[in-house]
Amino acid sequence: MLAALREPWPWYVAGPLIGLCVPALLIVGNRPLGTTGALRAMCAATIPSRSAFFRYDWRADGGWSLALVFGILVGGFIAGIVIPTPPPEITAPTRDAIAALGLGPDLGGMAPPALFSWHALATLRGWVFIVGGGLLVGFGASYAGGCTSGHGVTGLADLQPASLIALMGIFAGGLLATFYLIPLLV
Fold first, then answer.
1. Residue 74's pLDDT band (cuts 50, 70, 90)
2. Is residue 112 exposed (0-12), middle (13-18) or buried (19+ Cβ within 10 Å)?
3. CB atoms within 10 A of CB 27
4. What is the rounded CA–CA span in Å between residue 32 and residue 157?
5. Is the pLDDT score of 109 beyond 70?
6. Domain spans of the chain?
7. Could you give the C-alpha distances from 184 to 62, 112, 171, 180, in angstroms and in order?
8. pLDDT at 93 > cutoff 80
9. Please, which pLDDT band fits residue 168 given cuts at 50, 70 and 90?
């Protein structure tokens, strides 16, 4: 049984299960799927603030996103520690492209250790990547009114034009970062 769980689920099982999240969220109270509000709810719950942005009923509005983040962490622990699976194979062209950036041929799993290791994060470049990237992602998610999963799963299922526009911007930004920004920064 445990060996069967280590194999990836086929698309015809995983896809409908993800798709069933939308009607389930609508049934339990018209909740969007996404984690963007979790940080705001954590700040509102733990840090007294004079800002009106953090003075709201986080239990009613942000409790759902906190529960979702907790579930993601528990699910990640179960998937990574309890039922460990080998990382997916990375194609030779991707390995060559990463090596061409000077990040080395050894990816150490899914990410180059030259960028994603404690040693790399303790450098000035690592901190700029983490803090700068975090600020850009936070600003983008706030500006777009949600994150990729919120717009992609529930926004598109709800036929919201704003979600389609946001997703086009998210994916265009990802492509631009992949092909132009990352080669400049590394």
1. very high
2. buried
3. 9
4. 10
5. no
6. 1-85
7. 38, 16, 19, 7
8. yes
9. very high
Q: Six-digit token pair at 163? A: 């979600």
pLDDT for res 172 = 94
Radius of gyration of the chain (CA): 19
Give the predicted TM-score (pTM) of the model. Answer: 0.68
In this structure, what token pair is assigned to residue 65? 């996103």
Q: Give the alpha-carbon dihedral of 151, 157, 163, 168, to 10 degrees.
A: 90
Token duo for residue 155? 């926004």
Cβ contact 127:121 at 8 Å:
yes
Give the residue-averaged pLDDT of 100-105: 77
Among candidate residues 53, 177, 21, 182, the one with its CA nearest the CA of residue 115: 182
Amino acid at 183: P
Residue type, 159: L
CA gap 116, 122 in Å, rounded: 10
Task: Answer yes or no: is pLDDT of 2 > 60.
Answer: no
Query: Buried (b) or exposed (e) across 34-48, using 16+ Cβ within 10 A?
Result: bbbbbbbbebbeeee
